[in-house]
Structure formats: C-alpha cells, structure tokens
Amino acid sequence: MKLLVTGGAGFVGATVTRMLLDAGHEVVVVDDLSRNDDRQIPDGAKFIQLRVHDVVDVLTPRAGFDAVLHFAGLIAAGESMHHPEWHWDNNTRASLALLDAMRAADVGKLVFSSTAAVYGEPTELPLVETSPTSPVNTYGDTKLAIDRAITSFARASDSFGAISLRYFNVAGAHDCGDGTMIGERHNPETHLIPLALDTAMGRVDKFSLFGNDYPTPDGTCVRDYIHITDLARAHLLALGAIHPGEHKIYNLGNGIGFSNLQVIEAIREVTGEPFEVETAPRRPGDPAMLYASSELAHNELEWRPQKPDIVEIVRDAWRFHRQQ
Questions:
Q1: For residues 58 and 203, what is the distance between their CA atoms, to the nearest angstrom?
Q2: Which helix (H) or strand (E) holds 157?
Q3: pLDDT at 179
Q4: Contact in structure between 196 and 203 (CB atoms under 8 Å)
C-alpha cells in the first residue's frame, strides 16, 4: 500500500514508519519538524516538511494514497494547560484539515494516534474503551474532539473507516536490527524516563518528581507503560482491520500500573546511578492513576504486549540514550 504518515519524525511515527517499510509498504512522511528533527525518519521513506494544516497539498486525488496514519500533534499535557491555543490548533484544527483532505482525495482508511488522557480521572480501573471520557487537561480535550470528529466522518460515509489507538505511556526504544535504534527525542522533553536517564547520565543535576501526595500507594502518579515496539506493531494490525463506515477504538497498554517511584527505582537499577530526586509541586492536569485493559485489542486485533516488564522497557531506553 501507499501510505501517508503524519508526524513521522517523532518517536512513535518514526518507529511505525520503519515497520511499514520493513513490511514492504511505500511510505510518505509529513512532519513540520517543530518538535523533532529529521534524524529518525527511516531511510526509504519520502519526507516532505509540511504542517498537517496544509496536507491537502500532498494528499491529492492523483497521489494514490491507500491510507493515512496520523501521529502529528502536540503531546505535553502540562504545556496544554498553559498554552491551550497551541494544542487546539496543532491537534484539532490540523486533524480536521486532514479529514477534509482525505475525503476530497477519496482516501478511506485512517489510523489515529489517540491517548489515555481522554479518560481523565478514572472512576474505574482498569480503563476500558467504554469508560467515561472526562479529560482533565487540554491535551486530552483536543484528542477526544478528534476522536468524535472521526466518528462523525465514518458515520457520514460508507467508504471511510478508522481505528483510534489510545496510548498509555509509551517508552523504551525500538531496535531496528541494523545497529540503530529509534527512541525519544522530544523537544522539549517532558517524559519521565528520558528525563530521569538524562539525570543518571549527568546531563541534569536533579530529577524533578512532580507531586508525592497523590491518593496512590506511595503518593506518586501511577501509569501504564507500554514498550514502543509493542505499540508500533499494533498499528500494522489496525491497518488491516479497518472497515468502511466504522470507527473502532482500542486501548493499548500492559494492564499494569507502575508508580513514578517504581519507575525511578527501575532506572537506578538499570543505570547503576543513584541520582538525586527532588519533589516539585504537582503539574496541573495530571491524573493520579491510569492503567488499561487491552482485552478488546487482544480479542479483535490479536495484539498482545511482548515486552511488559518495566526493567526491560527502561533497559532499551538506556541503550538508546547511551548511543546518543
């Protein structure tokens, strides 16, 4: 198939692009490089530097695309509370432009990068796809709005279908099998594992732990960590499971919650560095606990995580960090 990947310079987008190329697909990557650079875009993919807002310039009827995998967007929940306008523009407005371009070009398959942030503070755990959606940050609001727009487009057309994959905490690094790895290179970096690894390497003096007074066993946030290779593999399965006129949603997680302190201890174990941790105030928009049930993806996509252990996830991230 000929596939358009938006946000293909990012951690998840680049990993999925690599797997798509390995599977024999033709891939065109669109990314504006506002939060990434082009170093991780795999060889073999055609790259076009472009905002998703302007994707109609690429996604034309004559281009012959069979499907779109949409990763582009801003992902920092804390930032979204201070600059909501950035997230509504780069996430929601851009996605509506993409949906319009797909309809005009008669491209009938979409895999969308959604998020567990749509659930907000959970009323039940583990979270399932039918759990109430009530985001506590603007990032989650924007992603939920896109999910709802996709549902509307699917209902309105018997030639368009989509699958949204709701990620929990993606981490680790993907081994490409040729001596290279794809890992986290966010700019700015906001994720716990790469920030803590930077501290262990001496790039940062202290690691800031945001909040230790949550209603959790050790007072720190609990999250479901999913290895990037497991997550990326689900996108290829989703691509083959799209049905016209239907929008399906699947959670992607391990079904296991690890607290921030547990993750920090795993990082200390892997790196051998007892780096300093300082407690900082809670960030606005951070739920106390989020972890998934992925039974629907197990049953309907035949997808199961193969690397659920937090130490293995950290170990792969550490390998990538040392390569840099």
A1: 40
A2: none
A3: 87
A4: no
**Rg of the chain on CA atoms, in Å:** 19
Q: Report d(CA 142, CA 128) in Å as an integer.
A: 20
By the 8 A CB rule, do 229 and 307 touch?
A: yes
Q: What angle do CA 304, 307, 311 make, to 5 degrees?
A: 150
Residue 139 known to be catalytic: yes
**52 close to 94: Cβ distance less than 8 angstroms:** yes
pTM flag (> 0.90): yes
Q: What percent of the chain has pLDDT over 70?
A: 100
In terms of Cβ atoms closer than 10 Å to its own Cβ (0-12, 13-18, 19+), residue 254 is buried
Active-site annotation holder among 119, 139, 214, 291? 139
For residue 247, list its beta bridge partners: 162
Question: What percentage of the chain's residues is helix, strand, coil (to nearest 5)?
Answer: 40, 20, 40
